[in-house]
Amino acid sequence: MSNTFTEGEAFAPQRSLFNALGFTKEEMRKPLVGIVSSYNEIVPGHMNIDKIVDAVKLGVAMAGGTPVVFPAIAVCDGIAMGHVGMKYSLVTRDLIADSTECMALAHQFDALVMVPNCDKNVPGLLMAAARVNVPTVFVSGGPMLAGRVKGCKTSLSSMFEAVGSYAAGKITKEELDEFENKTCPTCGSCSGMYTANSMNCLTEVLGMGLQGNGTIPAVYSERIRLAKHAGMKVMELLEKNIRPRDILTEKAFENALTVDMALGCSTNSMLHLPAIAHEAGVDLNLEKANEISKRTPNLCHLAPAGHTYIE
Questions:
Q1: Is the pTM of this model over 0.90?
Q2: Residue 69 CA to chain centroid, in angstroms?
Q3: Are 224 and 218 in contact (CB under 8 A)?
Q4: CATH architecture entry for 31-146+185-295
Q5: Residue closest to 298 by CA, chosen among 272, 271, 261
Q6: CB–CB of 224/50 below 8 Å?
Q7: Distance between CA atoms of 177 and 198, rounded to whole angstroms?
Q8: CA separation (Å) from 114 to 50, 79, 122, 227, 278?
Q9: What is the rounded CA–CA span in Å between residue 190 and residue 309?
């Protein structure tokens, strides 16, 4: 796609704008790989994504591509709870899909690496990947480590429960403060099997993320290595012309639903998987989900259903 700009006198104006960006002719001749960064400083699951993006850029460059970063928005559902902000969360999914499609096609990227993490950001970028349909790899920001209060592991749902316990007179203000200060100890998506971690695991099952995409903690150096491999892998997909709609098949979605049921993923997956499937030209309905649910045992009780965490 980007060779539209690199050949012929008619596109000299476009190349002049690449010159303004500081691109060399050598960089312009290489495949142009868009890295969709959802980094921001208001969402704990996204505050480390700048480091992930830097690693992806290195991977792309090592494999012979020219990496270019552009942004995607992301809302923290936890921070948005309890006020008007919650009305703005779900709608961002489609806004993310639309705006990423616009950026990818307007600038004719040859391939994409998506770097999401939280609830609506992951499905929005999966929808965009299916729409744009250039070779694409996902690498998420990774899950937060669990907190620890009085020797017990905790996550954000523990914090909400502590607020209720305090209101009911079951714990003291000092105990509530301890939950507040120790429940969310690191960057990353909230440490239970909430929507973000569910969708990051399902991205891996769908075949759009490398092994470990859903489970390597945000603070582990292993995630930086994963990001470098994601950058290299997208160049391999580009060389082989393997595109999202080649990967996002009906069977892939059936696999995702099977793992969804086995892991006990967030019920929000049934908001998002059908929307992603629709963009990929696959019909995924509740009847199919019920059919798979009936034959698939639930193997995990991760928080908030249990006291086990992704770490």
A1: yes
A2: 16
A3: no
A4: 3-Layer(aba) Sandwich (3.40)
A5: 261
A6: no
A7: 29
A8: 12, 23, 9, 10, 19
A9: 9
Q: In 3D, which of 40, 15, 131, 4 has the Cα closest to residue 123?
A: 131
Amino acid identity of 38?
Answer: S
What is the DSSP code string of 260-277?
Answer: HHHHT--TTHHHHHHHHH
Take residue 36 and report the two structure tokens written for it: 């969709």
Element (H, E) at 297: none
Q: Residue for token digits 């607020």?
A: 163
Amino acid at 47: M
**Two tokens at 300?**
């995990």
Listed as ranges, residues in the chain with pLDDT below 70 are 1-2
Evaluate whether 143 touches 113 at the Cβ level (below 8 Å): no
DSSP state of 306: S
Q: What is the sign, positive or negative, of the torsion defined by CA atoms of 101, 104, 110, 114?
A: negative
Per-residue pLDDT, 90: 98
Distance of alpha carbon 22 from alpha carbon 52, whole angstroms = 23
pLDDT score for 1? 63
Residue 5 pLDDT: 79
Contact 197, 214 (CB under 8 A): yes
d(CA 143, CA 160): 19
CB 33 within 8 A of CB 60: yes
As given in the structure block, the two tokens for residue 183 are 């429940």
> How do the domains of the chain map onto residue ranges?
31-146+185-295, 147-184
Q: At 35, give phi and psi (nearest 5°).
A: -110, 115
What is the pLDDT at residue 129?
99
